[in-house]
């Protein structure tokens, strides 16, 4: 998950509760907030397949000239977008619609999950409804597949994916669930410019539908239903990451954004123990990166004539790089450690420079050799630390108060009454 800037989390929560109240969107729990999540975010979709399971589903096609066309009793359809942005929709290899379109809504009238994928993406089950919309990029036409999903169904998927392989501690999973709910409900503008709220990747929160949802996670989310984290009277943006390496840091040091008192940075331990995230496979790491790769990433318009140098490294109290200077000959560039981590991750993979908490232990003519600690941006909740705290007997409320000092837990529906103040 990445950085999000919010102006009024209280107001957005009120709007969410009061404007997404249509029972038809979530028949199982009327009044439960619904989120808009774009599926398959990293893929330019030109084809989509929807499959029913035990019951048929329905589809509404909206066209500027024809209005709405309803199709009932569908078992499997394929949607294909053409080069002129028109579509072809087939039902079991029989074409049922061809032509222009504005949007498509697909849903199960009995609330059954539908399988969504295509010939390349293995179908996965998803709850909720689906809104299909056209879009255009320099690479051509495509479709957005937006899942309208009730928040607790969303959270069961998110927590299962985000905590996969880390822990089965119910208190740790509760802590992650409440943090993820708080993050979601205060980050509703994350993809506002693109016409939805969230993507399904680590840029927001990993969401894979109902695939691999674990029983312990469902239990944890159900037992903390509606709970969010408050600082004073304001819901918090509860950032989290994999492994802090011993100490968390602040938004200002990581992204240059405004600090919040509940994100001051904390030691990942109590007074007499080793770091809670000590057992993480990312607690300490080493990496080798070729100088030419770094040069092409940051000084790409400058000739690689002289050996690249990294100097003037400035650290924050947690050991993360605030700033460093990359230079080659007469050319130089100052970058933050977090920018360096992200750029390197996109080029050589996220398992090399795992965090901005690193130093350079040696170099040769071709490469730098890094030593570091932790995985991720280091702000907020440490997932491996959370796992260990739960296993040591801490409650989810104690875990959350450790990573988000001076906060408290309360229920969303009891705190927001349709105005701009908390009761």
How would you describe this protein?
The chain has 423 residues and is α+β, with helices and mostly antiparallel strands. Among the domains are: 94 residues, no CATH class; 88 residues, no CATH class. Helices cover 22% and strands 31% of the residues. The protein is built from 10 helices and 24 strands. A 7-stranded mixed beta sheet has the order 4-3-8-11-12-1-13. A 6-stranded antiparallel beta sheet has the order 7-6-5-2-9-10, with no helix packed on it. The two termini are 31 Å apart. The N terminus and C terminus are likely disordered.
N-C termini distance: 31 Å
**Percent helix:** 10-25%
Overall pLDDT: 89
Largest sheet: 7 strands, mixed
How would you classify the helix and strand content by structural class? alpha+beta
Question: What is the 3D shape?
Answer: globular
Q: Unreliable runs, pLDDT <50, ≥5 residues?
A: 3-8, 14-27, 415-423
Number of strands: 24
Number of helices: 10
Strand content: 25-35%
Gyration radius from CA atoms, angstroms: 24 Å
User: What is the subunit organization of this protein?
Assistant: single chain
Side by side, the strands of the main sheet go 4-3-8-11-12-1-13
